[in-house]
Input
Amino acid sequence: MIFNAVILSIRLYFCGSKCTMNLSDHLHHKVFRIIASVAAEEHTPSYVIGGFVRDLLIEGAGNTPKDIDIVVIGSGIEMAEKVKRSIGEELSLTVFKNFGTAMLKWGDTEIEFVGARKESYRRNSRKPLVENGTLEDDQNRRDFTINAMAISLNPDNFGELLDPFGGVRHLEEKVIITPLEPGSTFSDDPLRMLRGIRFATRLGFDIDPATQNAIHQYRERIGIVSQERITDELNKIIATKQPGKGFQLLDQTGLLEMILPELHQLKGVEEVNEQLHKDNFLHTLEVLDNIALKTDDLWLRWAALLHDIAKPRTRKYETGTGWTFHAHEFIGAKMIPGIFRRLKLPLNEKMKYVQKLVQLHLRPIILSQDIVTDAAIRRLIFDAGEDLEDLMTLCEADITSKNPRTVKRHLRNFQIVREKIIELEERDSIRNFQPPISGDDIQKVFGIPPSRPVGIIKNAIKEAILDGEIPNNFEAACQKMVEIGEAMGLTVHQELKREDE
Ligand code: ATP
Ligand code: MG
Output
């Protein structure tokens, strides 16, 4: 964070009891001067507000911020049209008449214009009643103090920071806090509860205790938020550098139980005969944080979050063995479609990918504990296919022992598995395995219609290849086919020629 550098240079403007900061030197994007000149000509005060200001103070401004929110005292749509004309290039302008907003796209930056507004809420809806308002009204309706700061784009005080709720102080103190009374902020629009947790997670901030208590108190209000928006926030939390913190906060505020009860049920330890099993919730969050160090892939991160999801259902204490979670990987994989459907996550190949990783997540671990046979590795390569690397990443993240020697031993064993995989792949090309002989071929050779024997022969060839009994090639597969077919009482009806011969 270059927050301190920016703040220190700005502190030079500190004067008297009131801190006024001027950030004009940090407004690099060309659009700011253009908006300023249109605002002056039209006598329409304009401000940049929200996420851009927050991120500018935290990390400084690049030349191409991804989105810029402009609030104008007047019509946002008219302002956007005039700014577009003033830029004079062919730019795309999207107008949302119903919302009174307009979005101008300039290169990679989206600039959104909205008229300042005052909002009031009804009990059953997140949709406020809206009327025109002042800048202060508009800042009052913002979710957090760090998101309510504005910078003037007007001639008399261009660049001046307008921070009515102490957003700068809260950035320094690393705290998320609502501008107004937190209860009504969250009751009005409960999506803000998830946004607060998302910002705390992304920025590594704490949530102010009164703000956090209010989230807990109003948690039931999350019921009026659409599942799509909830899931969008969950995905954004999962995409942060240390998502585990976000799930801790979701749990502490009671939201997790409502949004993802299966994950909440992983909590806790039980003791029988002085034997404890580990807290699978904490373990899962550790796995999620571990995997976040290795990959940005959202679905691989989801797989980490859900890999042990069936442990509560399969947990058993067995005398002599201790705690077991038999078949939790299979039952977990079966639970995925239901969870995805409820969360309105895609029910396509992304879901299948998560299912596959959940189902296979123990395989490399078992391999790394036993003596590794070629056949077992070949089967792993075959079953994981193109997702093998991701599976290995998940398994490595799954090692969360407190004992560094255990971690080291596991990682070393995984390294052996990885080396074996490379060695076998070079030899056998098992990944994306296509059987050298098709069902059609088998029918032709023995002169039989599509039937059970065809499947049996095909499968036996595949098994023989995976077991390393025969090499993965046409000739060997052909010979095996004839052998098995004849043993089943079939006779060769026609020789099989390879296509390219
Ligand atoms: P980012 O875009 O980096 O996720 P952001 O703060 O820019 O963060 P946006 O969703 O782009 O978030 O919203 C822009 C601004 O609009 C916020 O900074 C905040 O001031 C305001 N805002 C957005 N959603 C809400 C809400 N639900 N309640 C109150 N204010 C909101
Ligand atoms: Mg934004």
Summary: The mean pLDDT is 91.
